[in-house]
Design a protein that fits this description.
Elements: H1 3-17, H2 25-46, H3 52-61, H4 63-78, H5 87-111, H6 116-122, H7 126-138, H8 144-162, H9 169-174, H10 179-203, H11 210-236, H12 239-246, H13 248-271, H14 274-281, H15 284-294, H16 302-321
Length: 323
């Protein structure tokens, strides 16, 4: 890439880091949702072969080589050197890695309690929580239409998770104090904090463009998660290690989709407010329902149509708000 092109890209990166929205956030968010839904579908195949910890480990262990390849190709094509990884960057990257893992653990804990469906649904409030935290701590101000989009998207996901299960509004309110709901809300908080930490980490890297900063951050975060998860599995679930190696074909596909999805999310976080990225990324549920309908021949119920319309409406409002 020539100096003029690189300078223009760095200016775009700087604009995003100074609070302006880079338009790359929209395709990045959409593809992030697609790859995440695809990865989740592939992970279902591994459930019969791996424990819960093993299925989580392959996301990181097999994803790191792909993340390294993405970063190396992009930096090489741009003619950029590996940026200096300062203390602030490493701190934010570690925070992003740990909070994402904590969110996953809390979500799994919700499955162990009564009312886990409600807990899982409340974990989807991540977009609202991210918007509130960034507004309070980072001073990010979203247009009113974007807030409507965030609320509509979250409402759509809640309908998809809860409708058709015989859970009334009163029961939903009473469930707020139950362990499953608290775990779900905690998971949503951790995922929101992870998105914010990743955004702050990308802003600490100098000498690379927006995409380069996102990909380098991805490598570091996934490496930290791999090390932590490997340590835990080695101490508590050693039998899983052999299974993780034995299932390398399917596991490597999960790792590739995990790296692709996370790369898209990280680029989105670097380019726009985290809440906007997450609300648009909720199109993941649209892809998931589509996979179930067209490939598994499952019928689409009325509440799924209503939920999907709200999700799509939220995405459209978030998009219009940034124009």
């Amino acid at each position: 890439m020539g100096r003029h092109a690189q300078s223009g890209t760095n200016q775009a990166s700087g604009a995003a880091r100074n609070g302006q929205v880079n338009p790359i956030w929209l395709p990045a968010s959409l593809f992030g949702g697609l790859f995440q839904a695809w990865r989740t579908a592939l992970q279902q195949r591994l459930r019969a072969q791996l424990s819960v910890s093993g299925a989580g480990l392959v996301r990181y262990l097999y994803g790191v080589p792909f993340a390294l390849a993405f970063a190396a190709v992009w930096l090489g094509a741009a003619g950029d050197a590996i940026p200096a990884l300062g203390g602030a960057f490493l701190g934010f990257a570690a925070a992003g890695a740990v909070t994402q893992m904590a969110g996953t653990i809390l979500l799994i804990m919700a499955f162990g309690h009564r009312g886990f469906v409600v807990g899982t649904a409340f974990s989807k409030t991540e977009a609202v929580q991210a918007a509130l935290v960034t507004a309070l701590l980072l001073g990010e101000r979203l247009p009113l239409l974007a807030w409507f989009g965030i609320v509509a998207g979250v409402a759509g996901v809640l309908i998809l998770a809860l409708a058709g299960r015989g859970i009334s509004a009163a029961e939903l309110g009473r469930a707020l104090g139950q362990p499953a709901a608290l775990c779900g809300l905690g998971a949503g908080s951790m995922f929101a904090l992870a998105a914010i930490a990743v955004k702050l980490a990308t802003a600490e890297l100098e000498g690379v463009d927006l995409i380069g900063s996102a990909l380098v951050t991805l490598v570091v975060v996934m490496a930290i998660q791999t090390a932590l998860h490997l340590l835990w599995v080695a101490m508590r679930d050693r039998a899983t290690l052999a299974a993780v190696v034995r299932t390398w074909r399917n596991s490597s596909q999960v790792g590739l989709l995990s790296a692709l999805g996370s790369a898209c999310w990280y680029i989105g976080f670097a380019a726009a407010p985290a809440a906007l990225v997450r609300v648009v990324g909720q199109v993941e549920v649209v892809f998931t329902v589509g996979f179930a309908h067209f490939y598994l021949r499952e019928p689409v119920r009325w509440h799924e149509i209503a939920g999907l319309l709200l999700v799509v409406g939220g995405v459209v409002m978030a998009l219009i708000a940034t124009l």
